[in-house]
């Protein structure tokens, strides 16, 4: 199934992906980074899934409820119409202490017969799910997950064994049925009633609407910004405040490339950009929670590229014997990026702190001390080669990494001058900032290419350099020429590849396109940027409003993990800039 056909459901802890065929093909329980209970997304023939679909041929009309992450699908068959409403439920007091995946079916016209199929994942045959029966309920057990199935009176379960549960029902106009799963990890379960679960669908919808109504964004492209904000909210892991880069693992960035990665971790870069996006739309509680988590990780674990959602370091990569999405291997958990050195973390965290205080908020003494130590590290290490923003195995003096170090030190000096962080080594930071700038000017600009290049001695172009405009680096002329070089050499249709030479291995990186368009607007080409932004949104309008990491510019097919936070936050930043808001 195309990735664009999946909608994302979430409860602040886990995310489920629901396809246009009525099947939930991905759900990690109880957390986004737990092993999947449903994994048909990466094992089409043998993976776990939760299907509710008509028994005869059907067409669908689908979409989120306005301002909500509750999703609706209208099935039309020869015999009638019925609506499926799906939610990972919350309660009136917030996230439930268990996972509750609720699916309500309502008859709209005529009569529609439905099948129900629940197949539990086996973690690549490393566990053996089983059913257990007692006086109160029949429960399913899958590894450390225990759960139960709740169905309304009109649903008949005609098969219940250790691996699969099958059922059926029919709805006519006015009928209403429900099938739901309640689950937890090594914990007692509350056996909620069908009526309670059904009611919480609408409670959840109301909570989502209230949250999105409180977003303080009234600029251009409001509907798209609101939907992207709701997608980002799904990636906020509420137990800790961490922001996952995406909710999935191992979805290929290009067919045949082997570029399949686990994004269920919190990158300093992605978290920092998301915090800024939340601040720009007035989501202060989410921004504060994520910023607090980030500072805590930097303090307790040291400066790393990414962390697990609970704050630990990312585990090593482990490969599983699964066929992968559309046969694309490998399927993995874990990520090696945490072991890399990337100068980008300096710019990311200091830009976030600068935006935080620019909005009138306060840095506490511990946070100030952590940031001061990070500025010291930036001064000490900026001459070292790193893996760059794209996490490459080849260590180089990547231009974007040097710009990020300059950015971090520039913001550190500003924060010290404003009394927000200790200023003991403020002058050293300022000298380091200027030396980094001198290095970039002397080594990273190519007169021949008339652009900043990937790294000194290279003739390749890097689309991430578009971010330098937002960061306030350079002036107008060199960045204008660099942007035009990016457009000339890295664009494919409306979209852009990450850097020279990757077009054979992967799709266009959606965030890069938004970065380029935002930079054009900031350099004075607002009309051009707005027209191109509208064209990009139109080209992306092929699914449910949940965007992946990349896109095949020829076919329009999504590539990479989803929902991809970097894509959605870059959309928000660009829309806000096109609306004339302050970039800091």
UniProtKB/TrEMBL annotation:
<feature type="domain" description="GH15-like">
    <location>
        <begin position="225"/>
        <end position="528"/>
    </location>
</feature>
<dbReference type="GO" id="GO:0005975">
    <property type="term" value="P:carbohydrate metabolic process"/>
</dbReference>
<dbReference type="InterPro" id="IPR011613">
    <property type="entry name" value="GH15-like"/>
</dbReference>
<keyword id="KW-0378">Hydrolase</keyword>
<protein>
    <submittedName>
        <fullName>Glycoside hydrolase family 15 protein</fullName>
    </submittedName>
</protein>
<dbReference type="Pfam" id="PF19291">
    <property type="entry name" value="TREH_N"/>
</dbReference>
<dbReference type="InterPro" id="IPR045582">
    <property type="entry name" value="Trehalase-like_N"/>
</dbReference>
<feature type="domain" description="Trehalase-like N-terminal">
    <location>
        <begin position="4"/>
        <end position="122"/>
    </location>
</feature>
<dbReference type="GO" id="GO:0004553">
    <property type="term" value="F:hydrolase activity, hydrolyzing O-glycosyl compounds"/>
</dbReference>
<dbReference type="InterPro" id="IPR012341">
    <property type="entry name" value="6hp_glycosidase-like_sf"/>
</dbReference>
<dbReference type="InterPro" id="IPR008928">
    <property type="entry name" value="6-hairpin_glycosidase_sf"/>
</dbReference>
<dbReference type="Pfam" id="PF00723">
    <property type="entry name" value="Glyco_hydro_15"/>
</dbReference>
């Amino acid at each position: 199934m195309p990735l664009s056909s999946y909608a994302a459901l979430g409860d602040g802890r886990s995310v489920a992906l629901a396809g246009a065929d009525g099947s939930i093909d991905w759900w990690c329980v109880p957390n986004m980074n737990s092993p999947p209970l449903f994994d048909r997304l990466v094992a089409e023939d043998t993976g776990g899934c939760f299907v509710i679909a008509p028994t005869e041929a059907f067409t669908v009309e689908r979409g989120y409820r306005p301002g909500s992450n509750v999703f609706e699908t209208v099935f039309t068959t020869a015999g009638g119409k019925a609506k499926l409403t799906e939610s990972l439920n919350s309660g009136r007091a917030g996230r439930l202490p268990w996972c509750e995946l609720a699916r309500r079916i309502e008859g709209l016209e005529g009569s529609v017969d439905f099948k129900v199929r629940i197949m539990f994942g086996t973690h690549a045959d490393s566990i053996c799910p089983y059913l257990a029966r007692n006086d109160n309920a029949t429960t399913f057990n899958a590894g450390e997950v225990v759960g139960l199935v709740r169905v309304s009176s009109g649903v008949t379960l005609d098969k219940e064994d250790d691996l699969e549960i099958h059922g059926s029902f029919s709805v006519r106009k006015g009928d209403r049925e429900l099938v739901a799963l309640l689950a937890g990890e090594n914990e007692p379960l509350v056996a909620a009633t069908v009526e309670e679960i059904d009611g919480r669908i609408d409670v959840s919808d109301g909570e989502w609407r209230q949250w999105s109504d409180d977003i303080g964004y009234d600029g251009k492209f409001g509907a798209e910004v609101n939907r992207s904000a709701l997608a980002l909210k799904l990636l906020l892991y509420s137990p800790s405040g961490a922001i996952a880069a995406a909710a999935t693992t191992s979805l290929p960035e290009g067919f045949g490339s082997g570029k399949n990665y686990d994004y269920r971790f919190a990158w300093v870069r992605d978290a920092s950009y998301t915090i800024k996006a939340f601040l720009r739309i007035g989501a202060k509680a989410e921004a504060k929670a994520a910023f607090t988590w980030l500072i805590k990780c930097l303090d307790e674990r040291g400066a790393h590229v990414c962390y697990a959602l609970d704050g630990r370091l990312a585990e090593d990569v482990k490969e599983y014997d699964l066929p992968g999405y559309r046969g694309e291997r490998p399927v993995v958990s874990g990520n090696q990026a945490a072991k890399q050195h990337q100068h980008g973390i300096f710019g990311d965290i200091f830009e976030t702190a600068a935006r935080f205080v620019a909005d009138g908020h306060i840095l506490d003494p511990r946070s100030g001390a952590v940031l001061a130590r990070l500025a010291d590290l930036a001064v000490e290490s900026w001459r070292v080669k790193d893996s760059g923003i794209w996490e490459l195995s080849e260590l180089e003096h990547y231009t974007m990494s040097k710009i990020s170090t300059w950015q971090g030190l520039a913001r550190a000096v500003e924060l010290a001058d404003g009394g927000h962080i200790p200023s003991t080594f403020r002058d050293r930071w300022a000298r380091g900032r200027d030396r980094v700038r001198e290095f970039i000017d002397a080594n990273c600009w190519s007169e021949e290419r008339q652009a900043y290049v990937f790294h000194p001695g290279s003739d390749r172009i890097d689309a991430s350099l578009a971010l330098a405009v937002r960061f306030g680096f350079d002036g107008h002329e060199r960045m204008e020429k660099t942007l035009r070089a990016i457009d000339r050499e890295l664009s494919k249709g409306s979209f852009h590849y990450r850097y020279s030479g990757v077009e054979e291995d992967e799709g266009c990186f959606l965030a890069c396109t938004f970065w380029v368009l935002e930079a054009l607007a900031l350099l004075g080409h607002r009309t051009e940027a707005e027209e191109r932004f509208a064209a990009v949104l139109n080209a992306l309008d092929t699914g449910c409003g949940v965007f992946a990491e990349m896109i095949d510019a020829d076919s329009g097919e999504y590539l990479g993990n989803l929902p991809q936070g970097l894509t959605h936050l870059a959309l928000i930043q660009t829309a806000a800039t096109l609306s004339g808001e302050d970039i800091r």
